[in-house]
Design a protein that fits this description.
The structure is a single chain. 64% of the residues lie in helices and 3% in strands. The longest helix is centred in the first third of the chain and has 54 residues, at 53-106. Strands 1-2 form a two-stranded antiparallel ribbon. The chain has a two-stranded parallel ribbon with strand order 3-4. The chain has a two-stranded antiparallel ribbon with strand order 5-6. Helix 2 runs antiparallel to helix 3 (53-106), helix 13 packs across helix 16 (422-431) and helix 29 packs antiparallel against helix 30. The protein is mostly helical. The protein has helices at residues 5-8, 13-44, 53-106, 126-171, 180-193, 199-211, 216-223, 233-260, 264-277, 297-300, 330-340, 345-348, 352-368, 386-401, 404-412, 422-431, 436-452, 461-483, 485-489, 499-502, 504-514, 518-521, 526-529, 547-555, 559-582, 593-617, 631-644, 653-658, 665-673, 684-706, 731-736, 739-756, 762-777; strands at residues 109-111, 117-119, 228-231, 282-284, 308-313, 322-327. The protein is elongated and about 135 Å long. InterPro entries: ESAT-6-like_sf, TPR_rep_actino. It comes from Rhodococcus opacus (Nocardia opaca). This is TPR repeat domain-containing protein.
């Protein structure tokens, strides 16, 4: 606004500067007081006279209030800057106008009250009049520019002050505490806003939802398997009532408007709150907990009812509509998945919405895996086409699958409703012909299991919880592979292709996931494997020995996954052979079961390959180019993987206590030596003797490691040592030159050494090992 000239002299920008400076001091004082209150409450928690849920709740509230008050202080500081900065610019603009007026006066011009250039009447020649008119136009232009700058300064300052005042109003505490009533009122305001929710409403929701968020300590409690039971009841009421009132449409609209305006933190907080509401491990001291019942009915509806309906799809401009499949609520499911995906994965752990996403994804996949189906509807533009359904499923699995607790429940059945069948969820995801992103997201569902399988600190309750959660999840996954091996080796609708070819990343992930539990599959106890709860929820469920080869056969359908998985099985077998030598066996407890387990593992490797090859031979349409060409190629590839440096995991208890180094080249060489070699199979008698030699060698390696890295002097082994009385040479180095001569000599020398060292029961141990291998290899499976 441009004032009249007579009003300009009363403008005093200095008053605005003083007001701004005072508001700035208030902002700093407010910030300091917020810190003082938070510090005082936190200090109370450091004294023994006040601990427990009430103190924790008070500290949480103090932290959230401090954050909100500091935000108010920041907004006050913005107002201060608007006043001080605006006043400075306004003062300069006013002075510029005054300067123009003064300089125009020296040329004989005056400025009227309405800002017109005026000159005194005088007699002039024609030339003088023209020069005078040109000078008047110059000063008119100068005055116009000065007044424009004055007007701009005034308007910009007014806008800055108005925006700052609105921010202050939005940041000012609207209530003295959170309550269900406030949640309902705020949710209703969101709904009324529709596609253009007022900024002050968006600001307030962001502020209140953030204040109601979980603390880092509470998030860690969830990660450790605990329950958060100390949220104030007002916070619980506020969250539940807000999301109920906002419903599906309000939640989605608000999340999208936050994202469109670059407010990712607010969008994340909004989804975090919904994760809290839907988490059965979060509640108040009064016992009110979250879960499916507190999710708005309109959101629950996305995951309920028939998964598909019938549509009509026109392929071309002149084609008649054809029957098609429509994914019900597909568009809203896609919007919800995108919004909920903005939640912090750590806060999401245990949300029933994660389970719903995964369960519904399995249903949609089951209904749309057949590629001959038409998907979409020419008459409903919100009905997703096939490509959009693929993207939807990829995102649903990605968001739901990052919740480890949800994946555990899906695989184990823990807490799932009556009639739940995990096969209905997992199998369609494993069998779908995914694009790269979808396959990687399914693989990522399981990649945490191996990481959590063995707790690094068994005394840590959190690590033990995660280890048990991983074990129960792996057990459920192993049961699926064992029971559904035929459907995974011959996926419907793929002309006999196996999972290893259709979904190589998933197959490799299955092998990595289950590798820590290979020993458990043949009965090796958890005290050896270091794993926990690979026995199902009851603790009394076990895999049958005949299930193990079925699991291996599924993973064997992809050469890369199989190489890693089988290498670990053979490595564990070698560890068990060595463990028998160092575990202090006695006549009363000869530990022959170590041999049985080791033999079982060798048999499982061989039988798993047989089953996978048999499936391909029995299916004339099978074109699995991702698996091994033959058993010989398989063993050669496994040998290569071991030689290139696969990292074996120490799982045999006696090995750990003896400090045996599984990274030592001699150990890897010995494992490679136990793998059947086609050059040795031409002579069956020699092949059997070579296997016996390798078994003796494994046992000797265990004694060597337990004896400080060398065996005692023994003349029968001099040819096979690295230097005089040094450690045994690597097995493959010994066998590389003239094996028909050197291996029998090695066997004789090792037999003599082991006998002289006082090792008893060697023959019985070897018998147990061979019997364990044959026990598996002789199993008969219906084809």
């Amino acid at each position: 606004m441009i004032p009249r000239r007579s009003q300009l002299h009363v403008w005093n920008p200095r008053d605005l500067t003083l007001a701004g400076e005072e508001i700035g001091r208030t902002a700093e004082d407010t910030r300091g007081r917020a810190d003082d209150v938070q510090r005082a409450v936190a200090d109370l928690g450091r004294h023994d006279d006040w601990r427990g849920p009430a103190q924790a709740a008070a500290e949480q509230r103090a932290n959230s209030e401090r954050m909100e008050i500091r935000r108010l202080a920041d907004d006050l500081e913005d107002l201060s800057n608007a006043l001080v900065g605006g006043a400075d610019r306004l003062g300069h603009a006013r002075d510029y106008v005054a300067t123009v007026i003064d300089k125009a006066a020296t040329d004989g011009f005056t400025v009227s009250d309405d800002w017109q250039i005026v000159s005194r009447p005088t007699t002039m020649s024609e030339a003088e009049a023209a020069e005078h008119a040109e000078l008047m136009e110059y000063w008119r232009s100068q005055l116009g520019g000065a007044l424009t700058e004055l007007d701009n300064a005034d308007r910009d300052m007014a806008t800055a002050i108005r925006d700052a005042l609105r921010a202050v109003a939005a940041s000012a505490p609207a209530t003295t505490g959170l309550s269900g009533h406030e949640g309902t009122a705020l949710g209703e305001q969101v709904v009324r806003g529709g596609s253009d929710i007022p900024q002050d409403v968006r600001d307030r929701v962001a502020r209140e939802i953030a204040a109601a968020g979980l603390t880092p300590a509470q998030v860690q409690t969830l990660a450790d398997g605990g329950k958060v039971t100390d949220l104030p009841q007002g916070t619980i009421d506020f969250l539940q009532q807000f999301y109920t009132a906002a419903g599906k449409d309000g939640f989605l609209a608000l999340s999208e408007q936050y994202s469109e305006n670059g407010r990712t933190e607010a969008a994340s907080a909004l989804s975090n709150g919904l994760a809290v509401v839907s988490n059965y491990n979060v509640g108040s001291a009064s016992g009110d907990v979250g879960g499916q019942s507190h999710i708005p009915e309109s959101l629950r509806g996305l995951f309920e009812g028939p998964v598909t309906s019938t549509g009509n799809l026109t392929k071309g401009a002149h084609d008649a509509p054809q029957p098609s499949v429509v994914v019900n609520n597909g568009d809203d499911l896609a919007r919800f998945t995108k919004a909920f995906g903005l939640a912090d994965p750590a806060v999401q752990q245990g949300s029933e919405l994660s389970e719903s996403l995964l369960s519904r994804a399995g249903e949609i996949a089951s209904a749309t895996n057949d590629k001959s189906l038409l998907i979409g509807d020419s008459f409903d533009h919100n009905a997703l086409g096939r490509d959009s359904v693929d993207t939807l499923l990829q995102d649903m699995v990605g968001v739901g699958g990052r919740d480890h607790a949800a994946v555990h429940n899906i695989l184990s059945g823990d807490g799932m409703p009556a009639g739940y069948n995990r096969d209905d969820v997992i199998m369609p995801l494993l069998q779908r012909d995914w694009a790269d992103g979808g396959e990687q997201n399914v693989a990522a569902m399981f990649d945490w299991i191996a990481d959590d399988a063995r707790p690094s600190d068994p005394s840590d309750p959190g690590e033990m919880f995660r280890s048990r959660q991983a074990g129960e999840s792996a057990f459920g996954l192993a049961q699926i592979l064992a029971a559904k091996d035929a459907e995974l080796l011959d996926i419907p609708g793929t002309k006999g292709q196996a999972i290893g070819e259709v979904n190589p990343d998933i197959t490799q992930a299955l092998g990595t996931t289950l590798a820590p539990y290979i020993g458990n599959m043949v009965g090796v106890p958890e005290s050896f494997t270091g794993t926990n709860s690979f026995t199902g929820l009851t603790g009394h469920e076990y895999l049958r020995l005949e299930d193990a080869p079925r699991i291996f056969s599924v993973i064997d359908s992809n050469a890369d996954g199989a190489s890693y998985f089988n290498a670990h099985a053979l490595g564990l077998s070698a560890q068990l052979e060595q463990a028998w030598a160092v575990d202090g066996q006695t006549p009363q407890n000869p530990h022959y079961q170590y041999g049985t387990w080791a033999g079982n593992l060798q048999g499982v490797v061989d039988k798993g390959l047989d089953l996978e090859f048999a499936d391909r031979l029995g299916d004339e349409t099978s074109q699995n180019a991702a698996g091994f060409e033959s058993k010989g190629v398989a063993y050669d590839t496994i040998r290569t993987v071991i030689g290139k440096g696969v990292e074996f995991i120490p799982v045999a208890g006696p090995l750990i206590s003896s400090g045996i180094d599984l990274a030592d080249p001699s150990f890897k060489s010995a494992v490679m030596g136990s793998i059947p070699d086609s050059t040795l199979q031409a002579n069956a008698d020699f092949a059997d003797n070579a296997l016996l030699t390798n078994q003796y060698y494994q046992i000797a390696l265990g004694l060597q490691a337990a004896n400080g890295g060398v065996l005692d002097s023994y003349s029968g082994l001099d040819l096979f040592r690295d230097g005089t009385d040094g450690p045994l040479l690597p097995y493959d180095q010994i066998a590389a030159e003239n094996p028909y001569q050197r291996l029998p000599l090695l066997q004789s020398g090792l037999a003599g050494y082991l006998t002289d060292s006082g090792l008893t029961g060697l023959g019985h141990f070897i018998d147990a090992l061979n019997a364990g291998r044959d026990q598996v290899k002789d199993m008969r499976y219906g084809q």
